[in-house]
Amino acid sequence: MTKHYSYEDWCQYVKNEMDGSVREDVETHLYSCDQCLDIYLQVLDNEDSGLPKIQNETQFTASLMANIADLNKKNASLGEGKKSFYQSSTFHYILAAAMTIMMMSTGVFQSLTKVADTVQSPQTFQQVPSFSEGLINKTFNWMDSFEHKNKEVQK
What we know:
By secondary structure, this protein is mainly alpha-helical. It is built from seven helices and no strands. The longest helix is centred in the middle third of the chain and has 25 residues, at 57-81. The protein is flat.
């Protein structure tokens, strides 16, 4: 039987007044218990009434969006000047081209084609007889050796 938490426990949970391990247990219990979920929602509604009311919601939203836009502009201007040469795509293209030229001059790609040819050659594929074919061959060999022994005994 699972333990249900009281209204006071959920108030402590909402106000973040619980220890870490107890808080995790309460949170895990919340996922599986509908009765405690109802109590938790009641606590949230009651705690919501204690928050200050926004007088002019339109003005508040507009000022908040303006602050966010200002922060985005500041972050964008800070990010432009700090990009180093090693992080640019031009550096990566130059590095890739230099490595390709170096590999071509050392013959790495030629050795790769030789390896590919040996892997793809038909000589590497050997036809393995099936189990039934091997069994038939062994049976015939046994019968031949048996007949050969009988001929030696009769002579």
